[in-house]
Amino acid sequence: MLKIRPAYVAGQFYPADSEELREQINQYLQEVDLDLISKKIMRAIIVPHAGYVFSGLVAAYAYKTLIGRRIKRVFLLGNSHRSYFDGLVVDDSDAWETPLGRVMVDKEVGRELASMNKRIFLSNEPHQGDHILEVQLPFLQVALADKFQIVPIVFGNQNPIDYQELGKVLLSVVGEEDLIVASSDLSHYPPASIAEKIDQQTLEHIVARDVVGLEEYIMMVKSQNIPGEETVLCGPEAVKTIMLMAQKQDWIGRILHYAHSGNSPLGDKERVVGYGAIGFYK
Fold it and tell me: Per-residue b/e over 27-52, b at no fewer than 16 CB within 10 Å?
């Protein structure tokens, strides 16, 4: 009997009806002008993970670059939003389900990663109920015509070396037909004018592949006790993993789009969450 991870946030973060969901994603993708974004082959993308009504269009800027590509496997990275644990956990379910169908988990690669580093464990528990990776799947299912497998990975507590450990093992297993996706939002929850300034510098540090600079910038922002600013980056280890790999592989980073929840008809400009789409290509 297959171990299936269900769609926990269907009907909350995105439509539970398959036709409505596909139509919504296609609408976002159609709104993206491909001439305005890089036509290079993206090796890694960084995308937001809020409800689609808030961050779906931003995410579409990254996913639009994948249309027409053959991708065998997608490594999904995020900082757990529901569990606190030591190390990293690779999901060992057989498949993840969304309203658009099932996506198989590459369990063989998951076992390989766990065997390569003692900080990496196999379990499905930290992945249960967490939206950060799940919301990426419907976009992948629409953007990628061919079948693909996933390797879902979440970080627990913010251990300063875990992103380096994961980056090392991924560099040894990621192939030309693989994609890495880091799921992260930006500022939580300052006024729009403040978020825009903070987030722009965060994005610039990321595309520059400046891990040390990003870490110092996050600490500097936190030290200022800016009203409403609770988090500069909610997927820091996932993002830094891609930055590290981009350094080693000489991938070039590009900011594809930025917006915040205040840009949504449902948003409040006095209290926003920032969203950025970034692509890294060879």
Answer: ebbeebeeeebeeeebbbbbbbbbbb
Query: How is the chain split into domains, by residue range?
Result: 38-281
Second CATH level (architecture) for the domain 38-281:
3-Layer(aba) Sandwich (3.40)
Residues 188, 260 contacting (CB under 8 angstroms)? no
Nearest to 57 by CA among 278, 257, 269: 257
Q: How buried is residue 84: exposed, middle or buried, by Cβ count under 10 Å (0-12/13-18/19+)?
A: exposed
Q: What is the pLDDT of residues 205-256, one digit of tens each?
A: 999 999 999 999 999 999 999 999 999 999 999 999 999 999 999 999 999 9
Q: What is the pLDDT of residues 170-200, one digit of tens each?
A: 999 999 999 999 999 999 999 999 999 999 9
| Report field, pTM of the whole predicted structure over 0.85 | yes
**Cα–Cα distance for residue pair 226/218, rounded to 1 Å:** 12
User: What are 236's two structure tokens?
Assistant: 């820091």
